């Protein structure tokens, strides 16, 4: 089976309203099945860790739950709620979402992503969510041959 490029954007939230959580779930699940593209970490130090920290989730427990149980996305959100006593701190979610939306890549990373996508770096695309989308779409297109 071909390795898959994750194409769920970090700018997508599920019913709990947490940005990046669906992408995180999908990457960990794909990795547990051995189909995540080798260029993508199942759980990296950027948005993945921001979500774990922002929700107060233990990394090892969260990765094990997804890997061992292959939950659907709603099942995963329910597990998250269960870990948090049935509800999320909405101010913490708002803070996390603002941090994700407000994160910008450094100039070198931005230039590299835009260059690979054939877009001039005119300073109009700065946020990491949109830059990561462009990177994913470029990689997805390239993977099709």
Main sheet record:
none
Summarize the amount of helix as a percent range. 55-70%
Task: Quickly count the domains.
Answer: 2
Structural class: mainly alpha
Number of DSSP strand runs: 0
SSE topology string? HHHHHHH
Polypeptide structure, described:
This protein is mainly α. The chain has 2 domains: 15-103, no CATH class; 104-145, no CATH class. Helices cover 57% and strands 0% of the residues. It has 7 helices and no strands. The protein has helices at 21-32, 47-55, 59-69, 73-83, 90-102, 107-116, 128-143. Helix 1 (21-32) crosses helix 3 (59-69). The chain is globular.
Task: For this entry, give a set of tags.
145 residues; mainly alpha; 7 helices; 0% strand
């Amino acid at each position: 089976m071909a390795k898959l490029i994750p194409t769920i954007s970090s700018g997508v939230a599920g019913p709990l309203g947490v940005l990046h959580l669906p992408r995180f779930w999908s990457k960990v699940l794909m990795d547990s099945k051995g189909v995540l593209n080798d260029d993508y970490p199942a759980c990296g130090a950027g948005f993945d860790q921001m979500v774990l920290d922002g929700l107060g989730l233990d990394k090892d427990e969260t990765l094990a739950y997804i890997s061992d149980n292959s939950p659907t996305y709603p099942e995963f959100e329910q597990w998250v709620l269960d870990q948090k006593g049935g509800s999320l701190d909405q101010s913490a979610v708002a803070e996390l979402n603002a941090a994700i939306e407000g994160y910008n890549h450094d100039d070198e990373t931005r230039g590299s992503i835009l260059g690979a996508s054939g877009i001039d770096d005119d300073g109009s695309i700065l946020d990491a969510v949109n830059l990561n989308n462009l990177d994913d779409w470029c990689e997805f297109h390239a993977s099709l041959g």
